[in-house]
Amino acid sequence: MGIVGAGPAGLMIGNLLRQRGIDCIVLDKHTRAETYARSRAGFIEWRNKLLLEEAGVATRMLAEGEGHGRCEFRSHGHRHILDYSELAGGRTHWVYPQHELVADMADAYVEAGGDLRDGLGCVSVLDHGRPRILCSDGRELDCELLAGCDGFHGAVRPSFPEGTLTEHTIDHGWQWLAVLVDAPPSSDHLIYALHENGFAAHMMRSPHLCRYYLQCAPGDTVDDWPDDRIWWELSARLAADGFELEEGPIIDRSTLILRSVVFDPMQYKQVLLAGDAAHVITPCGAKGMNLALQDAALIAELAERYLGGEQNALAEYTERRLPDVWRSQEFSHWMLHMLHNYEPGEGSSFLQGLQSTRLRNLEESPEFARHFALAYVGAE
Ligand code: PHB
Q1: Dist. CA 177–CA 214, nearest whole Å
Q2: Which residues are within 8 A (CB) of 62 and not within 5 positions of it... i.e. 6 or more apart?
Q3: 291: CA distance to ligand 1 center in Å?
Q4: Predicted TM-score of the model (pTM)
Q5: N or C: which terminus of the chain carries fewer CB neighbours within 10 A?
Q6: What is the pLDDT of residues 18-40, one digit of tens each?
């Protein structure tokens, strides 16, 4: 099996296939050092904690990461701390940076005899009865099966013939500034804050690393956000009695346009798409890497059955994954609209009324809060 992309999805497939004794090759246009340098997500659902354990790649995450089960909503001076772990039967998220997880998965894969070619890209995929990868060094690789885990801008999906995919897409019209701060978290739980200047969030990555998000104006670039503006806005938007920001060097800053995409189907012949190659989700709710890992688990199961002679196994992929992808999209969209400022205009005060109702339901209705908790934590 060929696997294009050595991110969470590609390496999860690689590890699960090695466990099953199936030959595979993972290639990625980035070198491991480049991948390691990119800071990404870090909020792992309960069901994926179980999956990582099953794949034998959770040891360092369990030792160095942390279980988290509380989050806080701050809205115009009001604070609500939600113990979602209690509502979700003790399940928690695991907080562990994506690049560390990817490093652990790459090590485990190589130790298990897996073939990892970093710095080798896929230019396109040809259909020769079986998929043939055209590599960036001119080589061609034939495989029985191929997983495209090469991200939204990767080469695998665009190799599908015209008309094979329907793209469902929405631009939410909001933008975030994301910063990574070399300092301890300012609180022991996640914070989502609503403020007249826009949404802000506090997300921990490790005992010494903290991620913050700020809703910014569409079109803003990082040049619009020097350090002092970032700290000023964070302290205004996250302000609460007794709360102090742990300041430190800002080691990474980027802007994120909030948009969502689902491709349907997620497969063409013997080529299966996983992660951002198949769907893009906003960071709100932290579902992106989590969906990628779930895609990977099903691909590994179906690959084993297909290579074992079950010709129709691959047809199950889209059918079984899309409902879960849409469930996460709905969750993220719901949360996005609970937390962001609307531009004044037609309908905005109505939408704001809905927003306050969502927050109130979370606080006042145990049934509502329990539903949120199970979806948020990613109960298996
Ligand atoms: C994150 O850790 O980056 C994160 C966590 C929870 C969210 C969004 C982002 O809802």
Answers
A1: 5
A2: 53, 94
A3: 14
A4: 0.97
A5: C
A6: 999 999 999 999 998 887 766 67
